[in-house]
Specification:
The protein is mostly beta strands. The protein has one domain: Porin. Strand 19 and strand 20 form a beta hairpin. The longest helix is centred in the N-terminal third of the chain and has 13 residues.
Amino acid sequence: MKKFTAAAAALLTSTALAHAGGLDRSGQGVGIIFKDGNYAQLSFGNVNPSVSGTYPGAVGGGVSGDMAPSYNQLGGGVKLQFNDALSMSLIYDQPWGADVDYSNSTNALTTNASVSLQSRGLTALARYELGDNFSIYGGLRQNTLTELSVSLAAAGVAPAYTATGAQSSAIGYVIGGAYEIPDIALRVALTYSSETNHDIVVTESNAGTSTTQVTLPKSINLDFQTGIAADTLLTAGVRYANWTATVIDPAGHRAQRGSALQSYSEDVYTFSLGLGRRFTDAFAASATLGWERPQGGTSSNLSPTDGNVSLSLGASYTMDNMEISGGVRYVKIGDATTTGTLGDFTNNSALGLGMQVGFSF
C-alpha cells in the first residue's frame, strides 16, 4: 500500500493545475515531505483557459474576446531523510499569477487592457515523527513577485494608464501536523501558511514612482486519504485562502480611477474528492472532482470568474526508482458579471495538462 500511496500522490499533483480563485495557481502543496526515504521530483504543466463575455448596450456593447491567455507552471522539490524521525524538504513552485489580455475586445471600456503578475516560491521544511503515528513539520517560505505590469491603454472614459512593479520578496512561515496509519494508507495532514507582506516599488504613467504594499494571503490546507479496499485509495481536500486581505492599490491608479486595481470581497474555499486505483505493481490511475465555492456579487474585469467545478484524470507508472505521472484537468468556470462594465461572462472553461517525474535515491 505504501508504493500505491506514493504513486497516487504523484498523479494527483500532476493534475492539480487549475484556474483558481484569487491569484492562486499552485495550491502550495507540501506532499513531498511524506515520501519514503530520499526523493526528488520535477513537474511541468500548461493551463489553457477560455474566458470571454459580452457587454450591454448601456456601456457600449461589444465582446471581450478571449481575455485569459494560457500559461505554464513549473515545480520541483527534494526531500532528504536524515534518520528514522527527521527529514527536510526544499520545494519550488509558482504560487501566484495572473494573465489578462483584452486586445481582442470590441468594448471601449476594456479594449487593449492587459495585466501580468508572476511569482515564484521557495519553501524549506523540516519534519519530525513523534511516534504513535503523529508528526509535525514547519519552516520558512519565500514568496517573490517577479513581475507586475499593467496597461489600460484605451479604457474609454479615462486617460491611458500603465504601471510596472519591481521584483519584491517576503518571508513567511509554514507549520503543520499529520496523523498516519501506513498499513491502510491513512493520512490526515493540516498545513497553515502565513501571509507575506510585499513592498513593491511601482512606476506609474501618471504618478511617477511610489511604494505599494501588497499582502499575499494566509492559507490552510486540509488533506485526507485512506485505503477503502484492496488497491483503492480515497482522497479528499479542503483549501482556504484569505483573499480579502489582498488589495493591489497603486496610488496613481486610485487617483485616476477612484478604486483599487484589484481587491476581493470574499475569501476562497476549494474542495476536492478523488479515487485512486492500483491496477498493477507499476501502474495506477485516479479521478478527482473539484469544486470552488462561488462568491456571488460582481467580479473584477481582471478576473471575470466566480467559482468552478472540475474533473481531473491521472495515471502513474513506476519503473525501479523512477516514477512518471501525468494528468489532465477540465475546469468549468463559474459565470460572472463584471463590476462597472456589467460584462456577462458565461460558458467559460479551462484545460490543464501536467506531468511529473520523481526519483528515489
